[in-house]
Amino acid sequence: MKNKSRGLHTVYTINVLSGRNHMSSIALFPCLSTLDSGIIGELSSILTLKVYTDENLFGDTVARFGGDPERLKKMMYSRTSVFNQFTLEKEKAVNMFRMVLADKLAAPEQYLFHGFLTSLIPAEVTEVLRVLVVDKKEGRIDRAIKMGLSKGEAKKKIRNHDISAFSWTDFLFAKEAYDSSLYDLVVPVEAKDHREVTKEILSCFHRTSVLRTPESQSAVKDMKMVAEIENLLLAHGHKLGIKAKEGNVTLVIQNSVLNFNGLKQDLTDLIRQIPGIKEITIEKHKSYVETVYRQQKFELPSKVLFVDDEREFVQTVSQRLISRDVGTYGVYDGQQALDLIAEDCPEVMVLDLKMPGLHGIEVLRQAKEIAPNIEVIILTGHGTTKDMEECMKLGAFAYMNKPVNIEELSATIKAANDKVHAMQKKASVA
Fold first, then answer.
1. Residue among 158, 210, 220 at smallest CA distance from 185
2. Of 416, 408, 418, whose CA–CA distance to 320 is shortest?
3. pTM of this prediction?
């Protein structure tokens, strides 16, 4: 069999090496309705691979770190929250996934990884063949209909899957999910059945370059070190690019820093505590962004929704709050606010009472129905005593008049945030 370099998407003649233990694995990224179940069955049976899915990863992550598996699923499958720039929740979830997955890759077992988790396996781990089985949308829809779905249901299910997949790979790589550069082998289904597709994957798998080697296991160790460093940095509110090779670590800062040398020293002192680190290099990204680098302070409000139809007011106040480490996102009408509450669950909402469309009182009422634990601060320039009484009756946290004092608003938001977190802590203990 010819030994081709990784990354060539081609068909290989099968070369079944009888009795030879590859100590290698396969990672199959899902493209809904492309014969995945049949391929998984064939590959796991022929190669005696242990199937490991996203669900397995969620379970192992909860067992190791605690938490809610449904929240982990949301981090993987849902779009990135508008508040994530302040909370770093998705980065933290992905980091936990990487730490669990690195241990799996270091173990002697051979796996058939299947799911979005396959995107977390670095290309440098060459003992894992990263595979995408893909087809045109029409073929996927026809296949889903044959499995019992209506045409409308098939289109909706495939569309939702693709949205999740594209959101995931966009977050990780700023690339589309079915970009061939993310895989070692791309197999178009076309008219093939699952056995023919499996044959193509097997022929590529039985290559010398997919064997477990010292270099590949060194890459697994590098992956584990990067995950450990990332875990420590995220816990201290730092989001950075991280590279590691045989104990030599490079941290990459993307945003401008007022005191680069001071931050450099802080980061060096922080990660020195991780065993195995030899040299530490801290550099600026080639596209160094001229916005101020911020170390996130997780004890401060980070999921605040600001609702007002005056755009300039929202933008100005939001920026002033962010400068006070209050993570704020603005929308400009009541319906936008309700849609975001249903999807993203802010913890505190600052709400203008008088807006076109839905009145602030109605927004407050519906918001409390959607998310009973959200704390709402009412802002108004034209409110009445009756309005205030009705708002407080509906569960508003505070009622404030415009023009608002930014320090007073910031303190009120922090008090509301403290109440939310106290209730969350009480609920977790119960």
1. 210
2. 408
3. 0.81
Are 267 and 282 in contact by the 8 Å Cβ rule? The answer is: yes
**C-alpha–C-alpha distance, residues 122 and 13, integer Å:** 26
**What are the φ/ψ torsions at residue 269 (nearest 5 degrees)?**
-60, -35
Q: How many angstroms separate the most distant Cα atoms in the chain? A: 84
Q: How far apart are CA 418 and CA 411, in angstroms?
A: 10
> Is residue 4 a part of any domain in this protein?
no
Structural domain range at position 246: 236-292
Query: If DSSP codes are grouped into helix, strand and coil, which group holds residue 131?
Result: strand
Please give the pLDDT value at position 383: 79
Side-chain half-sphere exposure of 359, counting CA atoms within 13 A: 8
The CATH number covering residue 381 comes to 3.40.50.2300
Residues 56 and 90 in one domain: yes
Look up tokens 């988790």; give the residue.
117
What's at 57, amino acid-wise? L
Mapped onto helix, strand or coil, the DSSP state of residue 383 is: coil
CA-CA distance, 66 to 61, in Å (whole number)?
7
Residue 109 sits in a domain of what CATH number? Answer: 3.40.50.300
Is the preceding peptide bond at 214 cis, omega within 30 degrees of 0? no
Average pLDDT per run of 10 along the chain, which is 430 residues long? 38 36 85 92 95 98 96 96 93 98 95 98 96 95 94 96 97 96 95 94 86 94 98 95 96 83 93 95 75 65 93 92 89 95 94 92 96 96 89 96 92 95 82
